[in-house]
Design a protein that fits this description.
The chain is mostly helical and 483 residues long. The chain contains 17 helices and no strands. The two termini are 16 Å apart.
Length: 483
């Protein structure tokens, strides 16, 4: 069930009304209901994969209990490894099995050994498996590091694992935030609900008007990169940056807004990364739940930046390579991760990786300075360049894309594959960037204006924009569902 589908807009009001007006008296009953709704939500994709979520839930629930009650570090570590091996094994089999088999065959062929057949399988990737396995695993890790006491309430824990607003594409929540809210009594809050509806509206706008409208252009350019000049290829990858941002941050806004309707506050996943002044700030603002997960559970256990420059650089490289591999079973994602490591390390060595942690660009000014604009444009260029590998189907295609830019460095106008005017998209994106710059101080308040007239005009334009740009012929699935 997609957030931007008619099914969801029937499903959500039914769940909301039942949750608050029928099962509002007892927290346990509310949790059981939302758990059932979450399983229905996920099962409509493929009911068979519900057993994977249930298995991951059961394993980490009992592993958490066992870690907490163990009387020796050896036993605690053994139970933790059961959780890690189970979840990584689950993820590895469904997501990476064929990748490793094919890579092994390719490696042997380099040395002259050609395999007559490989043992690849026709495996369907379960939607959201990269997200919920990390979420359940973090629960066991937090108990192991004594940051958390395990719950004895299986229903609440199962709800934490499968909470439908963030089940299939995050944010990847930690139990200290989400589970603690699920086990607590929730009371209907009108302001929280209206704030949630505003976030849902803004998320839908970013998905329908920004991401989906750009998608046919990006798909055409990347599918036919050999036929286009450099100007068109640069246009294609630049538009992809806006597409993937609108798509994924739009999903996150809808997820956070939907959770608010049920009295739950999820962590922010995007904090206007378009206005980042270096790559380090970009990763503090882009897919925040994933980058914080890797920082807490991989980077810091490796020693973080407290182990000397060389080992810190090693840790940075590991983090970005693992992050790239998390995104997909393809060498393109590993190269994408390596590029970001190469971009991050100079910022780290200059000691500028943490200077923008607690402020936004032009925080107390109407406009950024020339230096800030230059920093933003450079960061956007570097991040966009890396996305050639992120978007390409293979390493060959990525280098072919780059080669075509180099060998056909000419500038020609581009014609939309569906015949629409390109100037309309440029105006739309310019207005979108300006609007996001206006609201950059608070990612959870997209319509925070004192004037009721201004709010009414913006609401009207947002709704009209979605009606105007909605196209039933476009694939409306979210990009990060494939991860």
């Amino acid at each position: 069930m997609l957030f931007n589908s008619l099914d969801f807009f029937i499903f959500l009001p039914i769940v909301f009304i039942t949750y608050w007006f029928i099962f509002y008296k007892k927290n346990q009953v509310q949790n059981l209901f939302i758990l059932s709704a979450s399983y229905i939500f996920y099962g409509l994709w493929d009911w068979r994969f519900l057993f994977l979520i249930l298995a991951s839930t059961v394993v980490d629930f009992f592993v958490g209990q066992a870690i907490h009650s163990s009387d020796s570090d050896r036993k605690r570590k053994l139970w933790l490894w059961i959780s890690v091996i189970f979840n990584i094994g689950l993820l590895g089999f469904f997501k990476y099995y064929n990748f490793f088999v094919d890579s092994w065959a390719d490696l042997l062929s380099i040395f002259g050994y050609e395999l007559k057949s490989t043992w690849t399988l026709q495996i369907i990737l379960p939607v959201g498996i990269s997200f919920y396995t990390f979420q359940t695993m973090s629960y066991s890790l937090d108990i192991y590091y004594k940051r958390l006491t395990p719950t004895k309430d299986f229903i609440s824990f199962a709800t934490f694992v499968s909470f439908f607003p963030q089940l299939v594409a995050g944010p990847i929540e930690r139990a200290s935030n989400l589970l603690s809210q699920i086990t607590s009594k929730r009371v209907f809050n009108y302001t929280q609900c209206t704030d949630g509806l505003k976030l849902i509206l803004w998320g839908l706008f970013k998905k329908v008007v920004i991401a989906d409208s750009i998608a046919p252009i990006v798909d055409d350019i990347f599918a036919n990169y050999g036929e286009y000049p450099a100007s068109t290829l640069i246009l294609g990858v630049s538009l992809f940056s806006f597409q993937v941002y609108g798509d994924f941050s739009g999903y996150s806004d809808i997820a956070i807004g939907t959770a608010k309707l049920f009295g739950i506050e999820l962590m922010s996943n995007f904090k206007f990364p378009t206005f980042s002044r270096n790559v380090a700030e970009y990763w503090q603002r882009w897919h925040v739940s994933l980058s914080t997960w890797f920082r807490h559970y991989v980077y810091i256990p490796l020693g973080g930046n407290r182990v000397g420059k060389l080992k810190s650089i090693r840790n940075i490289i590991i983090i970005f390579l693992v992050s790239g591999f998390w995104h997909g079973a393809n060498w393109t994602f590993i190269v994408w991760g390596a590029i970001h490591a190469a971009l991050y390390i100079p910022v780290f060595l200059m000691g500028r990786n943490r200077i923008y942690m607690n402020n936004v660009v032009a925080e107390n000014r109407w406009f950024p300075s020339i230096i800030e604009i230059s920093q933003i444009l450079l960061t956007f260029f570097l991040v966009t360049f890396s996305r050639i590998f992120f978007r390409s189907e293979s390493i060959t295609d990525a280098f072919g894309f780059l080669k075509q830019i180099y060998h056909n460095f000419t500038f020609e106008s581009y014609s939309h594959p569906l015949g629409y005017r390109m100037i309309d998209y440029f105006i739309l994106l310019a207005l979108f960037v300006l609007y996001e710059f206006k609201i950059r101080r608070d990612e959870r308040s997209p319509f925070k204006f004192k004037s009721k007239i201004v709010r009414f005009i913006i609401y009207t334009l947002v709704v009209l924009g979605m009606l105007l740009f909605y196209d039933d012929q476009i694939d409306r699935s979210f990009i990060y569902f494939q991860f």
